[in-house]
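hey so i finaly got around to running the thing on Homoserine dehydrogenase from Thermodesulfitimonas autotrophica. pasting the sequence first so u can double check i didnt mess up the copy paste, my clipboard has been acting weird all day
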Amino acid sequence: MDTIGIGLLGFGTVGRGVYRVLQQNRELITNRLGATVEVRKVLVRDPEKDRGIEVPPDLFTADPAAILTDPAVQIVVEVVGGIEAARRYVVEALTRGKSVVTANKDLLAAHGQELFAAAAATGADLFFEASVAGGIPIIKILKEALAGNRIIEVMGIVNGTTNYILTKMSEEGAAFETVLQEAQAKGYAEADPTSDVAGLDAARKIAILASIAFNSRIKLEDVYVEGITRVTPADIRYARELGYVVKLLGIARETPEGIEVRVHPALVPVAHPLAAVRDVFNAVFVRGDAVGDTMFYGRGAGELPTASAVVGDIIAAARNIRYQMRGTTGCTCFETKRVKPITAVETSYYLRLRVTDRPGVLAGIAAAFGNNMVSLAAVIQKTTGEIAELVLVTHRVREANLRAAVEELRRLPTVEAVANIIRVEEWYGG
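ok and heres what it spat out for the 3d tokens, dont ask me to read them lol
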């Protein structure tokens, strides 16, 4: 097959990027593939709208059937976003035997099982590299390059907006609200930033990564989620004093008691490779039983980085069509594993308390921890008049015990407030 037809569903930021990359690298892609990839139709709401890019006007259509039912379109690229309409388009394309490339993490997190079943029924390919970490090829790494490993842990910074905010708070000492406004002004954060700052975007991504890494379907509701809205410059300063930086992490780890899968702010040791990931960059740290520790770093969003991943998938789908080998990298969720509840997770904790500065306060706090089998690794006290700020770091402890201790602390008359609690992710690498 000398020419393979592409239908683009959507022509927003990512869609335009995909078209640009396909055009500017057309000769290179043709030589690498041994066939020409040609965009035949582009689905948009308004075909007459000026989009600031030179595209033949007859490529645009407002009718999805012009792509989904056209036998000359062998690969459907879904970059329209959202869930329900995208789901209908993708399911129909797969049902008709067309290969699909999507960048839609929301769709995969909500309907991944249905989509993979539709692909399996017709032997079509479903590729989704751009759904998790933009230009970082982490899906291909887990499915192919590390396929011989038993994956022990996947942990990453998979949301550029929150990483930018935490970087600026750390380096400039600015408050969350101030940096968020700056991120919105620069286009790094949406007008409604809830999905990013509440951790939901990262939760969808870690659900996808965990499903692949541990061969067991992880749903969005399986992921424990906390955002970064309660992180303050004081927390970041104390973390630095203790030898840590604060990052929003997506964490998936397989243990004998089940899979841990969670998103939350975490204190990361300054020696950990993830600690140096700044601004809008993403990074995914993977530990395998054979390969050991690896990390994959790059831009997690943006027009061209995301388009890079989409076009890589288009080429993979086209190659499979050309050599009649489709359906070789389908769903890998062939096991059903237990997800560990957050109360059963064991880790260390950072706590910041506001307490009355008088004799006996520390003894009462130590007793509350001791009553619940929580031991302390570090204590910092800062006094300002009659109120002292007390920062504590625990040794590893089960979360249920930590929560019981915190409830006891809140009942103490000398504790004015438990101002913040942040988990600590230790690392013992080189």
